[in-house]
Design a protein that fits this description.
single chain; 100 residues; mainly alpha; two-stranded parallel ribbon; 2 strands; 6% strand
């Protein structure tokens, strides 16, 4: 992409989430699609990338943090119902590299 068309900010690192990388990483194919999207934007507009590859520890933290917030708001939920509510907004952390 043209210089300045993609702005990268590691929001999870900035929030202090344990294990969140300061440097974002994406697959080459993702980078190519981001570059194409950024170059298609009107002049003066940039694409903000706030997250890339997310380590399992970060995904686990996001899941646990959201689950704790939902539990505070809806203490009546059993574990399955809680997982369903959390799963509507946060992907369950999975250690299988073939099916993250």
């Amino acid at each position: 992409p043209s210089p300045g068309r993609i702005v990268v900010r590691s929001v999870y690192h900035a929030r202090g989430i344990p294990g969140a990388p300061a440097l974002l990483r994406v697959r080459a194919g993702v980078l190519g699609r981001l570059a194409a999207a950024a170059d298609a934007l009107p002049r003066g507009i940039a694409l903000l990338v706030a997250d890339g590859h997310r380590p399992l520890a970060v995904q686990r933290w996001l899941w646990d943090d959201h689950a704790a917030a939902v539990r505070r708001e809806r203490p009546e939920l059993d574990d399955d119902a809680l997982a369903a509510v959390v799963g509507a907004f946060v992907a369950r952390p999975v250690a299988d590299p073939d099916c993250p």
